[in-house]
Each structure stands twice: as C-alpha cells, then as structure tokens.
Write a structure and sequence with these properties.
The complex is a heterodimer of chains A (about 180) and B (about 650). Chain A is α/β, with parallel strands linked by helices. Chain A has one domain (about 30-175): Glutaredoxin (3-Layer(aba) Sandwich). Helix content of chain A is about 40%, strand content about 20%. The longest helix of chain A has 23 residues, at about 5-25. Chain B is of the alpha+beta class. Chain B folds into two domains: about 1-390 and about 620-650, no CATH class; about 515-615. Chain B has a five-stranded antiparallel sheet with strand order 2-3-4-5-6, with no helix packed on it. In chain B, α1 packs antiparallel against α6 and α10 packs antiparallel against α11. The longest helix of chain B has about 35 residues, at about 345-380. Chain B is globular and about 85 Å long. Chain B starts with a helix and ends with a helix. Classes of the chains: A alpha/beta (about 180), B alpha+beta (about 650). At the A-B interface, α1 of A face α10, α11 and α12 of B.
C-alpha cells in the first residue's frame, strides 16, 4: 500500500472537520427570505383587541421593531413567550405581534393567562399577510429597521442564545443607522 | 446527597479512565505484565463507578428529586414509574451518561470474556477504550453535568415529552447506544492492531463477535425507533430520511460491511488494510451520529439538545479519536503486509462487492445528509435533500446488493465458478421470475417489481444454501443439517431477514391506501378491503393525560370482524398532544386508524391507512437480529481463536 494512499482518509476527515466547524457557527435553520432588505409587503389589518385602529407597514416605521408571528394554537409560541415577556418588560425591544389565524376569544384567553409582551398586535385572522410575508410556521420573527424594511428573519422560537448572539447585536446595529 | 455521590463517582471514573488510557499502553510497550494487568482492574472499576453514577441519577428520577435540575426539567411526579426510569435517558445529559455506561460495560466485558486474548493486545484495546472514556466522561462533567442542583427546588417538574412516554421509545435509545458504542470495540481493536502493527486471522476472529453483537443491537435499536415512529407519530410513516435516522443507518451499513470483510481477514488473511479502515469508519459514523443530534449543525426533528458549545466539544472528540486513528493508519498501513491473492469471481470477490455496495449506499446517505451543509457553507445556497434523492440511489443499489448477496455464498474461496453457482440457484431464479410476474400483474412500478423479485431471489437463494449442504441423500439430511456450523445458519437467517424487510418495504411503497374522512358516530368509510365505522368518541382520563378515545368497528364482507381504539392524548405537562393509532395487525397487512380534530355537528377527522406487509419491515429486522445471535453462538467464537503463533505460521 502506498504511503500517499494511506494519507487519504485522514485528509478527508480534516476537510469534513473543517466543514463541521464552520457549520457549527452557521445557523442552518434560517431559511433566507427573498424579502430580506426589502420593505414589508403591503397590509392593512385591524388591531387586537379591535379598537378601530388599523395596522399597516407605516405603523412599524421610525424605530427598530421585532415583528413576531404567533398564535394561541402554537405550542412552540408558548415556549418562546417567557423570553418575549422578559424582553418587553426590560424594554430591550419593541415587539409587534402578528396573530396568525387565531380565534379572538382563544387569543384573548392566551394573553390573559400568559401575559402580553406586544406593544401592538395585528390580527391576521385569514392568514393573508402571513402568506405575503412568506411565513413557514409559527413562531417566526422579523427584524424591521427604521425605514420599515425586513432585515432579518428568524424561524422558530427565540431563546436566550439567539437573542444575545444574533438578534440583540443586529437590533443595536440597526438602531445606530439613520 | 445521592446526586453528589453520582457526581463524585463520575469524577472517580474519569480519573481511573485517565490511568487506564496510559499505564497499560506503557506496560504493553515495555512488556510489563503488572501494568498490562492493571487494564483489567481499571476497566472493571470504571464500570463500577459509572454504574454508581447512573444508579444515582436513576434514583433521583424515581424519587422525583426536583432539586436536581435535570429531573425538574424532564420529569413529573405524576408520571408512571417506567417513564420516570426512561426519563433518565430521555434527555441530553442522561443519554450521554447511558452512552458512557455502555462504553464501560463493553470495556469491562474484555476482562470478563476475553481471557484468551494475548496480554499486549487486550492491554492496548483497553487503553484505547480508556481514551474514549476520558473524552466522553470529560464531555459529561464539563459540558453536560446531569447532577446540577436547582435551588430552590420546584414543587413539580416540567414532565417528559409525551411522545417519549411509550414502551417503544423507552427501549429504543438503550439498544441504539449498545450498537453505536459497541462499535467502539471494533475501533479499539483496530487501533490496538495498528499500534502492534499486526493484523492476522486471529485478530479478526477476536474482533468479529464484538462487531456482530453491536450490529445486532443497532439493528434492534433502529427497528424499535422505526416501529415507534409508525404507531406513535400518527401519520403512518416508518422511515423519513431524516438526518438523525440517517445517522443511525450509516454506522449500521458500515458495520454490516465490517462483519463481512472481517470474515475475509479471518478465513483468507486478506483485505486487512480495508477492514481496519472500515472499523475506524464505522465507529466514526457512530460519533458523527452523536455529533449530528447534539450540535444542531444539521436541523432535524430529532435534535433534542442543540447547543453549540457541546457541538464544539464533540467535534474536538471526533477529530481527536478518528483523526488520531487515521493518522496512525497513515503511518502504519503502508508497513502492513498485503494479504493473500484471489480472483475477482470468488467468495472474497463477492464479499468485496458487498463492501463496495454497502459503502456506496453509506456514501449516498452521507452526501444526502451533509450536502445541504456543504453547499450552504461553500456557496451560501440553501437546499434540502428529500426522499426522491435517497430513493433514486438507495433502491437500485439495494436491489443489486440483494442479487449479489444471494450468489456470494455459492462461490468458493480463492477461485469461484459463477456459472455453477448460478445453476445451483435455478429454483431461486424461478421464484424470482414468478414473484416478479405476479407483482407486475397485481400492478406496481417497475422498480418495485424488481425489488420484489430480488427479495424472492434472496429468500429462496438463502434457503438453497442449506439445501445445497444437505445434498440429495435424504437419509443423511438430518445429520448434515445439524452438523452445519451456527455461523452458516446465522448467515442464512440474517439474509432471509433482509429479504423479508425488502419485500415489506416494496409492498408498503406499492400498495398503501389512505383515506381521510369526516365521520359522525355510526358513519362508515372504506380503506383497502375494510370498512371502518366510528362507534363512539369518549373523554378518558389517564394517569397524566386526558384523551379523546374513539372506538371503531372493522367490517369486512358485511360482518364486524374487529374493534379498534384510537386516541388523541393531551398531556398538560408540558402541554402537548400525541396520537395513539388503532392498529389491526395481521401477517399480511395492517389497518391503521387515527382520530383527529372534532368538527361542528359532531363529526371527527378520521385518517385510515391500509398497509400491506408493513409488519414484514420490522419482522425482517428481528430475523436479522436472530441471525446475528445465531452466528454469535457459533462454537468457534465461544472456544476462541487458536493460538496466535500457529495461525501465523499457517498464514505465511
């Protein structure tokens, strides 16, 4: 057996290990949205609870916000909820909720039971806006910059790790933009 | 207090593993009998300490000691005792502890069963096992300590994921780990052989039982997981090509190749470089399986402990173990003697073909699993690889494999006669053509027809191995049958298992019928040749769940032949739903009924499947395990290898 041939396996492993190492730093779960760096798609939704106010992309302009897609029927949203509550209470982020295909009484009960971290909730009862946004499942969170553009999309629950390592630095950076 | 005892004895195990990893190695190099003998004591001691730690964690779970953080997170006082115990490994930290316990178990089995091993070899094998122990014990103690306390202790725990509260899943991880970790023995033997610079038939004979045992456990583990997914997830699927499932299939395929190539080393003193490499590869794939589930590097429905810091640690472990072994291989392999020669058409040639095909299938699955990751890192493009990719490669390769593995046993060593082998398979050929024509007439895709034919070919061809040994003289038949070595029986039985599983897969893919209906009590829907009538839906309260329980009458030919119960359970802790399908299991088909949401007006969503031969998939796996067990009980493995020097002379 040749000396060089015997080296092949260890070289293959080195290449693999390199990829795995990079892979550990890359979040393979984020599915890149084609809407990144584009303005929010047009929508006009009632607020929840319905006080006559309409929520449109204009509502989200002028500061950095998190647009959180959630629903009372979504189990993972329950997991995410305490994290959002903490962020809202410590005033570290303004969170706009998009209630996705939810029933008003169930939504109301959910908020009463678990608390309300949302500055405003848009009621997307038929789920049209979620389709325009390209929502793949709840929960999802979009980081919206001051000009109302989508700058980042997070699929799945926000946990302490994603907040401190991904979202918080991004929010700080966007707040520094003019 | 109990948790602290566990933590402390885990630390002791780490210290002992450090000694086990170094002293015997030095002893073997200096030929110091006392240092080599220390390996045996250390391996036994390690089992003792890890077992104490495991018992301590189990005690914490059983007594619902919620001051232990892990117990509070994953258990609940209202849980049945069996699932309190299963909860020990239903989480990342506890499952790693189980992993190390099994590692220690295999390590301690060397002094218990390997008395006839040469001293230097067993010292080196145990030293390598010790190194693995150091790595994984350090991983547990420094990144995943299961004994951390919680202050103040909560009144009750979060509860185990209800999907995991099931007998199938309670037993699936232990068997899977017995398989994964069992391959560490093949790895340790390979590294020890590289250190000694000697690979011979005696070595192969020592290595084979360990590999065979690990392979049988892994087969059982994969089978339990697949069966669990079938009846618990509620959508009638049994394999999803999910990265974590692939992670268990890859070491299984490589391990299957390994038990075959080790035969060539044992019988013919050839294929030595390849077998060593395969042993390293098999355990590496087990490690990569661990890496996949725990690092979050690949997203999967199974990844239960995504934590990048742990990922880094496991990656470092992977690089250290496999990198170390392969570097040793690069240095030592060129110096090892090449084995005996043989022609392409021979038993050896057949086993090489088997290895090539199995490794090709492994490579396909590896690519499918990791290609999305590689592509994303290299070009930033995101894709996902789905079942079409796997089926496109996996199915044809498996069919070729089945055709070849039928012929292999009829070829003689060194130089075989293909024509004669095929002639002896004439009945199998007739069976294959018959089954192929029959399934084509019933109606299915061309690839499925080929799969059915190949399964029949393999089934009858394997029986022909026995028939061939018996010969035409029926008066001597019994004497000849009972004289056949168990290893031959094992091979025949395991191959039949493969045929049964393959036929099951082909049938389910070809002839599954699915009906989704909205039914009110008293209404009927059809699936396959069955009619299913919803009788009642009741509210039922279980020990730690509430449930909607649907009763169904199964009607065939106008008469009620069976009653099925399907449930939709809601577990308030931690708040999730599970489906308990109602199954009517028959040898030739399974009727599968689940109950879904209720609708206004008193109707319920009812989902029904008719799955022909689906039980053959798991039945075949059990037959494979039996084959493995038969082969393990072969006399030559129990008696052990002949003295090494004698073998060396014979081989040279």
């Amino acid at each position: 057996m040749s000396r060089w041939l015997a080296l092949v396996p260890v070289l293959i492993l080195a290449t693999l290990a390199l990829y795995f190492a990079i892979g550990l730093r890359t979040d393979t779960r984020t599915i890149k949205s084609i809407l990144i760096d584009k303005p929010l798609p047009a929508f006009d939704l009632p607020a929840f609870p319905d006080d006559g106010k309409r929520i449109t992309p204009e509502t989200l302009k002028g500061r950095v916000t998190l647009l959180n897609i959630f629903a009372s029927w979504c189990i993972t949203c329950r997991v995410e909820h305490p994290v959002l509550l903490k962020l809202a209470m410590e005033k570290r982020a303004e969170i706009i909720g998009l209630a996705w295909k939810d029933k008003p009484d169930e939504l109301k009960q959910w908020l009463e039971e678990l608390g309300n971290p949302y500055a405003t909730i848009a009621d997307d009862r038929i789920g049209r806006t979620a389709i325009d946004l390209g929502v793949t499942g709840a929960p999802e969170t979009y980081v919206i910059d001051k000009k109302g553009r989508i700058r980042y999309k997070h699929v799945g629950a926000i946990d302490d790790y994603t907040w401190t390592n991904i979202l918080e630095p991004l929010v700080k950076q966007l707040e520094a933009e003019t | 207090m109990i948790a602290e005892i566990g933590h402390f004895s885990l630390s002791l195990a780490l210290t002992l593993a450090l000694a086990q990893a170094t002293l015997p190695l030095y002893g073997a190099a200096k030929n110091d009998a006392r240092l080599m003998a220390f390996a045996h004591a250390a391996a036994t001691g390690q089992l003792l300490f890890v077992a104490i730690a495991f018992a301590a964690l189990t005690a914490a779970f059983v007594t619902s000691d919620f001051s232990v953080s892990l117990v509070a997170q994953h258990s609940h006082s209202a849980k049945p005792l069996m699932y309190k115990i299963a909860g020990v490994w239903g989480n990342h930290e506890g499952s790693m502890l189980l992993w190390v316990l099994i590692l220690a178990l295999f390590g301690a089995a060397v002094p218990a069963f390997g008395r006839n091993l040469p001293e230097t070899l067993s010292a080196r094998v145990l030293a390598v096992q010790g190194m693995l122990g150091v790595g994984f014990l350090a991983f547990i103690l420094f990144t995943s300590n299961p004994f951390l306390r919680l202050d103040p202790a909560p009144l009750n725990g979060n509860g185990l994921n209800p999907l995991l509260q099931d007998p199938g899943l309670a037993t699936h991880p232990p068997f899977l780990y017995l398989g994964y970790v069992g391959f560490s023995m093949a790895f340790s033997f390979a590294v020890a052989a590289l250190i000694e610079g000697k690979v011979d038939p005696a070595w192969a004979r020592w290595v084979r039982p360990w590999t065979l045992a690990a392979w049988a456990f892994l087969t059982l583990g994969i089978m339990l997981g697949s069966a669990w997914a079938y009846y618990e997830l509620g959508w009638g699927g049994w394999w999803f090509w999910d990265p974590v499932e692939n992670a268990s299939l890859m070491p299984w395929l490589a391990g299957t190749a390994l038990i075959h190539s080790a035969i060539v080393v044992e019988k013919r003193d050839a294929l030595k470089h390849w077998t060593i490499l395969l042993a390293i590869l098999t355990f590496t794939l087990s490690l990569i399986g661990t890496f996949l589930v725990r690092s979050g590097v690949i997203s999967s429905v199974h990844s239960f402990a995504s934590d990048p810091t742990r990922g880094v640690f496991i990656l470092a472990l992977l690089v250290a173990t496999t990198g170390g072994a392969l570097t040793l291989y690069a240095i030592r392999a060129p110096q090892m003697k090449l084995g005996n020669l043989f022609t392409a058409v021979s038993r050896e040639g057949g086993l090489i073909l088997n290895n090539i095909l199995l490794v090709a299938i492994t490579a396909v699955i590896f690519l499918g699993t990791f290609y999305p990751l590689f592509l994303q890192i290299t070009t930033g493009t995101q894709i996902s690889v789905g079942p079409p990719f796997y089926n496109f490669f996996f199915v044809p390769l498996s069919i070729v494999l089945m055709i070849a593995m039928t012929v292999g046993p009829f070829l003689s060593w060194k130089r075989g006669d293909l024509g004669q082998a095929l002639w002896r398979l004439k009945i199998a050929a007739v069976a294959a053509i018959g089954v192929g024509v029959a399934t084509a007439v019933v109606g299915t895709g061309s690839l499925a027809v080929l799969a059915f034919a190949a399964a029949a070919w393999l089934f009858v061809g394997s029986l022909a191995v026995i028939a061939g040994r018996v010969g035409n003289d029926w008066t001597k038949a019994w004497a000849r049958i009972s004289g056949l070595p168990r290893a031959t029986w094992g091979m025949v039985v395991a191959h039949i298992g493969v045929a049964v599983t393959a036929a099951g897969i082909a049938a389910v893919v070809s002839w599954t019928e699915e009906t989704v209906a909205l039914l009110k009590p008293g209404e009927t829907a059809k699936v396959g040749h069955y009619e299913v009538r919803l009788l009642t839906v009741e509210d039922v309260k279980g020990p730690n769940y509430t449930s909607k329980l649907g009763r169904f009458a199964v009607v065939a030919g106008g008469a009620q032949i069976d009653e099925l119960v399907a449930e939709r359970r809601n577990y308030p802790n931690p708040g999730s739903d599970t489906t308990e399908a109602g199954l009517r299991v028959r040898p030739l088909d399974v009727l599968y009924v689940t109950i879904g949401q209720s609708h206004p007006g008193g109707a319920w969503t009812v989902r029904m499947y008719h799955h022909p031969l689906v039980f053959w998939i798991w039945g075949g796996s059990v037959i494979m395990v039996l084959g493995g067990a038969l082969s393990l009980s072969d006399r030559r493995l129990r008696v052990g290898a002949p003295r090494r020097a004698a073998t060396m002379q014979a081989a040279e």
